[in-house]
Amino acid sequence: MKILSLNAGSSSMKFQLYEMPEEKVLIAGVFERIGLNNSFYSIKYNNNKIKKEIQFKNHEEAVSIFLKELIDLKIIDSLEDIKGIGHRIVHGGDKYCDSVIINEEVIQDVEKFSTLAPLHNPVNLLGINIIKKILPDSKNVAVFDTAFHQTMDKESFIYSVPYEWYKEYGVRRYGFHGTSHKYLSERICEILGRKDLKVITCHLGGGASITAIKDGKCIETSMGFTPLSGITMGTRSGDIDPSIIEYIMQKTGKSIKEVMNDLNKKSGVLGISGISSDDREIEEGIKNNDERCILARKIFVRRIAAFISQYNTFLNGADIIIFSAGIGENSEGVRKEVMNSLSSLGIIIDDEKNKSRGVETVITSSDSKISCYIIPTDEELMIAKETYELIER
Ligand code: AMP
Known about the structure:
Number of domains: 2
Distance between the termini: 13 Å
CATH superfamily of the largest domain: ATPase, nucleotide binding domain
Radius of gyration: 21 Å
Largest sheet: 8 strands, mixed
Order of helices and strands: EEEEEHEEHHEHHHEEEHHHHHEHHEEH
CATH class of the largest domain: Alpha Beta
CATH topology of the largest domain: Nucleotidyltransferase, domain 5
Bound molecules: adenosine monophosphate
Shape: globular
Strand content: 15-25%
């Protein structure tokens, strides 16, 4: 059965078509700079790669071009071959703790939760509407970034603010990257053939979050009401004292919008280093003894280690720590520094294995109290799996 996984962003769209349940990727497409100058798309299939620079005005054009490519490249005979489409939806509020088949009520909810994710939910919804227009008989599934975290207790998700903010306005920790954390949790259970595991998953990419998982259920996560909080990220500040916002507004005359933009786009590793949000450039800077790159790395590592230590306590001793996403899968240096700073937990790194990149590997020695793994994340596959399971049910 052919299942399409779709991730619609504000100026990009990512598609992946699977043969399920074999989990075989038939084709993957990325459309970038939608609605901007120099838009282009790239497609990978059967070891072939195509890149075309062509103007597409909007998301609907991008979808139409991709579907046409599927037929032109003979990946499918007709659009009816696509039996289901899984849509990545950033915010499902506190209503959705699992993926669901999309109906009118789900559409209204995604729209309602746009107030909580104004940059993401509207464009996710646009993706659904375009597919419903082009493929009116298709079955669509919503896979929420927040869903996996809905098992947290109130003591984890309620902030220490007036309780009415939660009751009246939905102010609480929601958590994000849930599809990735869930994938990693399920994958380690498959690898070890066990379900009763206490796992800390570290999704360390441009955005980054850490989750504590017990018996397959999320009990704590570092992102909060929005993806701005938690550990230091590429351009996002992570946790800060909220009083800084008022202070900087007074000192600089910036508006709240400008300061929030600084916290989202000019902070984190980029803000500290003054050079880049990209870990590869930070690594270069460190080699060249750039003080601020060294500091950015130290802060990044310390925040990760702090969350892991805290979650290790909540889990009453973790069995497994997983490193994933762009930095977690590739950066030997970040992993090494994090593991070394956690030696008091009995973590013993295997330096040779830690040189691995982007492949499933244990990176601690056999006498390490907690086993650390690299596991490449696969959110697209997770979306396709959930879509297939719901459609097959
Ligand atoms: P993601 O958001 O998961 O795509 O991760 C993107 C980030 O991963 C980039 O900004 C880089 O900082 C980091 N990254 C990607 N490839 C590498 C690599 N080979 N070595 C170190 N960091 C990497």
